[in-house]
Amino acid sequence: MDRHGITLAAVGRLPGGGDAPCVGVVAEEPGPALGFLGPDGTLLVARPVDGRELLAAVIAWFEESLADPPQDLEATQEDLASVVRWLAGASLEAPLHGLLSEACDAIDDGLAEDVVVRRLTLAADAMRGDADEQADWVDLLVERYRVLRGA
Predict the structure, then answer these.
(1) Measured between alpha carbons, how far is 28 from 71 in angstroms, rounded to an integer?
(2) CA–CA gap between residue 141 and residue 139 (Å, rounded)
């Protein structure tokens, strides 16, 4: 969906019913960012960009762990592959770059969803560093939305 030059490729709706905000990827320069489109049309973009949050959105799409977004907003597999490809290109660390490249290859090759999710999760875990372990990717997305809303 294009709103004022910003495009949201939605991976789903956050928990909370039919009018819950959509979460997805916003295409902008220099690279993609996590975005939330509220039921009132307000678009919130998460800055600074956090690679783990972007991967959480991609993982949620492959796991089908969110309610479907409106069809005209729905992300495609190519939208998500481009996010992972961008993250791989932006990563200078050899182990992380390799993990992201393998995840992108899995998406591009149409491998089984569990294989794709496993590779994405390995990359997201490598990004974690000293942060606490993330047990649920949807919780990470919900928390980011709360922070953006100031709740």
Answers:
(1) 21
(2) 5
Cα separation, 59 vs 51, in Å, equals 12
Helix/strand number for the chain, H first, E second: 5, 5
77-90 helix and 94-108 helix, angle to the nearest 10 degrees: 160
> What CA–CA distance (Å, rounded) separates 147 from 140?
11
Cβ atoms < 10 Å from Cβ of 66: 22
3-45 pLDDT tens trace: 444 579 999 999 987 789 999 999 888 899 999 999 888 999 9
Angle ∠(108,47,135) on CA atoms, nearest 5: 60
Token pair of 21 as six digits: 């905000």
Q: Could you write out the DSSP letters of every residue in 59-97?
A: HHHHHT-SBPPPTTTBPPHHHHHHHHHHHHHH--SHHHH
Angle (nearest 5°) at CA 140 between 91 and 87: 15
Handedness of CA 37, 115, 51, 77 (dihedral sign): negative
User: With 0-12 CB in 10 A as exposed, 13-18 as middle and 19+ as buried, what is 28?
Assistant: middle
